[in-house]
Amino acid sequence: MRFSIITLFGELIQPFCETALIRRAIERKIIEVDLINLRDFGVGKHRRVDDYPYGTSKGMILMAEPLKNAIKSIKHRNKYVVYTSPAGVPLNQRIIEDNLSRQKHIVIVAGRYKSIDQRFIDKHVDLEVSIGDYVLQGGEIPAVILLESVSRFVSGFLGDIDSAESDSFSKGFLDCPRYTRPYEFDKMKVPKILLSGNHKKIEEFEEEESLKLTFKRRRDLLDTLDLTKRQKEIIYRLTLEEKDGKVKH
Ligand code: ADE
């Protein structure tokens, strides 16, 4: 899978490409990443990329022309263009898994300044995404987030041991609490059932813990899922316990 990232601040993204799994994946050609400097496509002697806004906005706006030329410089077909902006659709695991990880070539336009010219978005952008309800200085960190979250689904990126199967959201719930050695830490013990060797019981326990956490923190996720009979029973029990003030938040 190839990622092309159009940015004014490639130096913010470069270190992520030189570290840990992303670096290994690039070295092994599991993913390819190219950073495209928007300044190279600026207009006039000063390679200008931004201009004053029409309307009431106070900030500067990235111009459509340099962005269009930057996109045109990418010669591959089958490009899927993603623009990172706080006004985009909220990014979630479903978009990453079902849409983005199935693309061959993702072009990420990392915005800067107040915004970018809407006409560029209308003509060239396939998906406008936000990484959360807060405003960053630019789209470079969102671009890294996209790079990392999508790459995890490219075959060969993760080793077996970190398989994406048990991640939070992989079954629609938050992942349950996890433990490692030692068995006792600061007088706190690992839940006994995890040492029982009874695989079925352990799976049931983990599913229940997963549901509890999702019920406490992200009840909105539960509405989107097709729950099994057992899962519905657990949720029903949690609802009753909550009424009795037994669920700690
Ligand atoms: N650029 C600035 N803020 C952003 C956000 N919340 N999500 C995506 N891109 C952004």
From TrEMBL:
<keyword id="KW-0819">tRNA processing</keyword>
<comment type="subunit">
    <text>Homodimer.</text>
</comment>
<comment type="function">
    <text>Specifically methylates guanosine-37 in various tRNAs.</text>
</comment>
<comment type="similarity">
    <text>Belongs to the RNA methyltransferase TrmD family.</text>
</comment>
<keyword id="KW-0963">Cytoplasm</keyword>
<dbReference type="GO" id="GO:0052906">
    <property type="term" value="F:tRNA (guanine(37)-N1)-methyltransferase activity"/>
</dbReference>
<keyword id="KW-0808">Transferase</keyword>
<dbReference type="InterPro" id="IPR029026">
    <property type="entry name" value="tRNA_m1G_MTases_N"/>
</dbReference>
<protein>
    <recommendedName>
        <fullName>tRNA (guanine-N(1)-)-methyltransferase</fullName>
        <ecNumber>2.1.1.228</ecNumber>
    </recommendedName>
</protein>
<keyword id="KW-0949">S-adenosyl-L-methionine</keyword>
<dbReference type="InterPro" id="IPR016009">
    <property type="entry name" value="tRNA_MeTrfase_TRMD/TRM10"/>
</dbReference>
<dbReference type="GO" id="GO:0002939">
    <property type="term" value="P:tRNA N1-guanine methylation"/>
</dbReference>
<dbReference type="InterPro" id="IPR029028">
    <property type="entry name" value="Alpha/beta_knot_MTases"/>
</dbReference>
<feature type="binding site">
    <location>
        <begin position="131"/>
        <end position="136"/>
    </location>
    <ligand>
        <name>S-adenosyl-L-methionine</name>
    </ligand>
</feature>
<dbReference type="InterPro" id="IPR023148">
    <property type="entry name" value="tRNA_m1G_MeTrfase_C_sf"/>
</dbReference>
<dbReference type="Pfam" id="PF01746">
    <property type="entry name" value="tRNA_m1G_MT"/>
</dbReference>
<feature type="binding site">
    <location>
        <position position="111"/>
    </location>
    <ligand>
        <name>S-adenosyl-L-methionine</name>
    </ligand>
</feature>
<keyword id="KW-0489">Methyltransferase</keyword>
<dbReference type="InterPro" id="IPR002649">
    <property type="entry name" value="tRNA_m1G_MeTrfase_TrmD"/>
</dbReference>
<dbReference type="GO" id="GO:0005829">
    <property type="term" value="C:cytosol"/>
</dbReference>
<feature type="domain" description="tRNA methyltransferase TRMD/TRM10-type">
    <location>
        <begin position="1"/>
        <end position="223"/>
    </location>
</feature>
